[in-house]
Every structure is written in structure tokens, then in C-alpha cells.
Amino acid sequence: MAKQASKGQTRGSHPPLTGMMAFLNRFPFLVLGVVLVGAFTSSMSAPLGGLFVVDGLGEAPWKISVAAIIKVVVTLFTNRYYGHAIDRGVPVRRLLLISISCFTIGMGIIGTFQVYWVYAGVASVLIGVGSGALSVVYSFGRLFAEQTGRDVKKFNSWLRMQTSLGWMVGPAISLSVYGAFGFTVIYFAIAVLGAVWLAFCFFVVPSAFKTHHPGSITPGQKVPFNRGLLLACLPVYLISTGHVLFLTTMPLYFTASLGLAPSAAGFELTVKCFVEVIAIYVSTRLIRCIGERRGLMIAASFAVLFFFLVYHAQTLLHVLALGALDGLYYGLFAAIGMTFVQNFARDRPGMATSYYISTLFVGGLTGNLLMGTIANWYSFHATVAVSGFIVAIGGLALLVIGDAPAEEVAAQQA
Predict the structure, then answer these.
(1) What is the 3-state secondary structure (H, E, C) of 146-194?
(2) Which of 91, 113, 170, 320 has the fewest Cβ atoms within 10 Å of its own Cβ atom?
């Protein structure tokens, strides 16, 4: 990841690199480490929510959705506030430390007070604020790439790769610890990891690091409506919804509909994540040749093909082979989607990144809600078909949405 000039680099004055910024410029893996440690820590809590509500607290399954909705709503408001705060010059580290502290306290509260109303009404709010850290670290990564003259598209891919790497191991370790020691131990363990993440960010992220874009930090400035940014989020929302709908259905689909062993879903995810990391790595060359929008169209095409084939799968060998296609389409989508959205608001990367992350959260919530409804009224096969249909609509939306304005045009409009 040697430093190199970027054709897609946004305009703005680059402050001289001194102190911690000069150090990070020499060792950029520390910036990637902020994302990796955060992805690993937060992913460990992801598979526990439903188990905790049903098995740990003995509550009805519908209460899982109540807590999930609270988390997503709080995260949406947090991302919106953080996005505007970053673009108005609020130091990034301050926002990160607030979110990670809330996440760590939330984990500690769940481990201490194992009561549903505390989990839904208190811990879920804190975790929702903590989820805002994801958009902040991505904004930090993009601004760092710009301020050090790195290729933004390539560095965004490296950032997204850290998230995939963290998710490859975090949930598996979390479920293993839970199976051996129970909920109390695993939630306190995650709280300890949260404290480590907090300390890592405190020492790595410069205290005064903030946006460098001119004109974006004017106090009281009204942010103009960006129609292109909202339209860019539409295909991201649809592809994310289809992906999560299948992901939540997959274990039951493999066991109940295909008659496979429960371990089939785990094997498929292992193959998927492995190929996903490779796809993210090679995505930079792809978007240099054809651009972000066409790259997303290719990802959507692979996704539709995957859902069509997995709908007709019958054996474990089929599932494992299709896991590679699953990782290929989602790796391309994950690597390209953030840059595609950010390019519609180059001078306001905080806002653009918050829109992107919020879109993923809303897509995830929609997918979870659709899964229960479709599976209950129709079948698990139907959820796979609907997943492919939703992603296909996302691909068609990309045909209608134009490319982001060229950098020179965006500079004139700003």
C-alpha cells in the first residue's frame, strides 16, 4: 500500500503531515487496524441477540424484532448526526470514543442485568449509538487517504476488507465461547474487547484529525438537498435487503428445505467469506476499467445468478460451490458500494458515508422482517426467490441511475 497519487482524489488543501499523521503515513496498517479491531469486536455480538432473547431470557421470538428496531432507529439518528458533525469539522476521535464507550457499556449492562426491558430499553440504545462507529471509521479512512495522497478507491477496498476479515472469525469465536461458558462470560468478554478497541483508537487516531474540505465546516451552513446521493443509496438498499433476507433464511433453508446437516450453513459461510476477501482485493482494478456503477451491475448480475442456482441446489457439494459465487458477488458489492455512494458527495464524505452505512442497516432490518413474513406464509424456497427478485430490481435501478458527476463538475457545483 505504498502512497500514490489518486485520480479519484477529492479536492481540498492537504495539511502538512506532522506528528501522528506523519507516523500513520509511514504505517497505514494502523488505520486499517482501527477498522479490523472494531469489526472483530462488534461482529462477536451480532449472532447473540436472538439467542439471548429466546434462550437466555426465555422471551417470545417477536421480541427480537423489537430490540432490533430500536437499535436500527438509534443507529440511523446517530449516523445522521455523525455525518454532519464530521463534515462541519468535529474531530473524528471524539465521535469514535463516544460510540465505542457506549458499545462497551452496553455489553457490560447485558452481562450484568439479564432482563429483557434492560436489554431492549437501555442496552439496545447504547449499542445503537455504538454502531455509529462504523460510519466514523470509514470516514476516517477516506479522509486519511485523501490527506496522505493515497488512491481513495484502493484504500476504501482495504478498509472494507478489514470488515470482512473481522466477520470471518468474530461470530464463530463468539458462539464457541457462548457454547462453552454461557451468556455472562461472552458479553463481559466482548466488553473487554470493546475497552481494547477504545484504547487502540485513543492512541492511533490523532486528537485533532478532521475534514480538510474547504467550505464544509461553516457553522450554521444549511446542507443542500442531494438527490443524486439518495438515488445512489437505492440499489445499495435493494442489494443489501436481498443479501440479508437470504442470509437469515439460509440455515433453515438448508436444513428444512434441502435436508442438509446444520453445519452446511457454516461451511457455505466459510467459503463465502474466503472468496469475498479475494473479490474485495481485486475490485480496484475492475472499477478502474469500468467504473463503480457498472461494477455494481456486475455484482447484481452475479447475485441473481447465485439465487437462481441456489434455489435449485440439492446437495452439500452444490452449496459449497455456490458459496464461492455468493462471496464473489457480495465482495464486489461491499468493495464498490461505499465508493459509489461517496462519489455523489465528494466534499461531504461524512454525510455520504453515514448515508451508506444507514442504508445497509435499513436493508438489513428490512431483510430480517421480510424473512419471517415470507417463510411463515409461503416457504423457505420462496424467500430465496424473493431475495433474487429484490436484487434484480437493484440491478435495474443501476441502469436508470447515472454515474456520479465528474470531479471537476462536482468542484464547480460545490
Answers:
(1) HHCCCCHHHHHHHHHHHHHHHHHHHHHHHHHHHHHHCHHHHHHHHHHHH
(2) 113
Q: Which DSSP string do the residues of 327-346 spell out, in sequence order?
A: HHHHHHHHHHHHHHHHGGGT
Buried b (16+ CB within 10 A) or exposed e, 367-382: bbbbbbebbeeeebbe
| The one-letter amino acid at 8 | G
List the one residue out of 198, 190, 207 whose CA is nearest residue 140.
Answer: 207
240, 303 in Cβ contact below 8 A? Answer: no
pLDDT in tens, 219-254: 555 556 677 888 999 999 999 999 988 887 887 788
Is-contact 254 318, C-beta < 8 A? no
114-117: long-range pairs with CB below 8 Å, 24+:
114/56, 114/57, 114/183, 114/184, 115/57, 116/53, 116/57, 116/59, 116/63
* Residue 267 host element (H or E): helix 263-290
Cell of 346: 465528494
Residue 162 burial (CB count, 10 A) = 24
State the cell numbers at 154: 484502493
Rg for the chain, CA atoms, rounded:
21
Over residues 294-328, the pLDDT tens digits come to 999 999 999 999 999 999 988 889 989 999 999 99
Q: Residue 176 is which amino acid? A: S
Q: What is the tens place of the pLDDT at every residue in 79-110?
A: 889 988 888 889 999 999 999 999 999 999 99
> Which cell numbers hold the place of 338?
461505499
CA atoms of 196 and 335, how far apart (whole Å): 27
* Spatial distance between the Cα atoms of 262 and 330, rounded to a whole number of angstroms: 23
Q: What is the pLDDT of residue 224?
A: 64
At residue 216 the predicted structure's pLDDT band, cuts being 50, 70 and 90, is low
List of residues 6+ apart from 259 with CB closer than 8 A: none
> What average pLDDT does the chain have?
85
- Output the pLDDT for position 408: 46
Beta strands (DSSP E) in 306-392 are none
CB-based contacts of 197, cutoff 8 Å, min separation 6: 37, 38, 41, 100, 104
Triad 92, 217, 99: Cα angle to 5°: 25
Answer whether 354's CB lies under 8 Å from 75's CB.
Answer: no
Distance between CA atoms of residues 312 and 38, nearest Å: 37
